[in-house]
Amino acid sequence: MRHTKRISKVFAGVFAVALLVGLLPSVGLGQEQAPPPQDQAPPPSFPPEQLDRLVSRVALYPDPLLAQVLAAATFPNDIQPAAQWADEHHYLRGQQLADAIQNDQLPWDPSVQALLPFPNVLDEMSQDMQWTTDLGNAFLAQRQDVMDAVQRERHRAYQYGYLRTNPQIVVNDGPYISIAPVNPDYVVVPYYDPAVVFFAPRPGFFVGGAIRFGFGISLGAWFHPWGWGATRFDWGGHGIFIGGRPWGRVWGNRFAYVHPGWGPGVRRWEGARRPEAHELVRRDEHERNAWREGRQRPEEHHRPEGRPHH
Prior knowledge:
This protein is mainly alpha-helical and 310 residues long. The chain has one domain (48-270). It is built from eleven helices and seven strands. It has a three-stranded antiparallel sheet with strand order 5-6-7, with helices on one face. Strands 1-2 form a two-stranded antiparallel sheet. A hairpin with a 2-residue loop joins strand 6 and strand 7 (245-246). Helix 2 crosses helix 9, helix 4 packs across helix 7 (119-127) and helix 8 packs across helix 9 (143-159). It is globular, with a radius of gyration of 26 Å.
């Protein structure tokens, strides 16, 4: 009986070792795990009529702003927290806002950070996440079709007399309609009703008042690291350039693509490589401890204190 028990224990031990050895590769002990495979199948294609409706809210934005919106929409998970941050810091402008963005070391994609000076735009995107997600997915999977839809809507607005050059924007008509801010560092957001500006006006309707321009955002050199001042479309070639560099993010590389040329201080993390919140807190605590101990610490940008909310 004792001999039988001893043999049973030996077999149990061998089985446990074999099981452990078999499990080690699956848990990645001592090895970096490969990221799980991602589904690369694109979403169902949007037909032209649906794309026209999808882009109608932003089709008349100046080209640099439209480019940032389309790029940011491909990161829908970043939009709502960015909108909240923008609302909480809406009283900051210019260099103070740029310093706050860098000082807070925000974890969102730079295309989303580029919209922080435009809290109303981010708020509209965050209020309708289905639209934002559809817009981003369409731009990833059907960029050419999305850009063609923008052109169709612009041609309608131009044909009916709504879209014209004015003190805020320069409208260049032709095979492709471009909309540029008069001052590249001063961008004004247009407000319009898509149910009006893309349809023939009623008799006696004043088309000149259908597109309104509120206050503009002065971007200046402070926001050039986020691509402002060098962002445009190549409408004929269906290309988009952010910060002077081609934007190459598409559906197939959406988990790995890193846009080249982001300026210093602009952080970006992709997919599973993005730090979790506790990692950011741990890093900030490390920097604070380094400062207390007198070691070299990156230069801080000091934000003015006591600025009231309006």
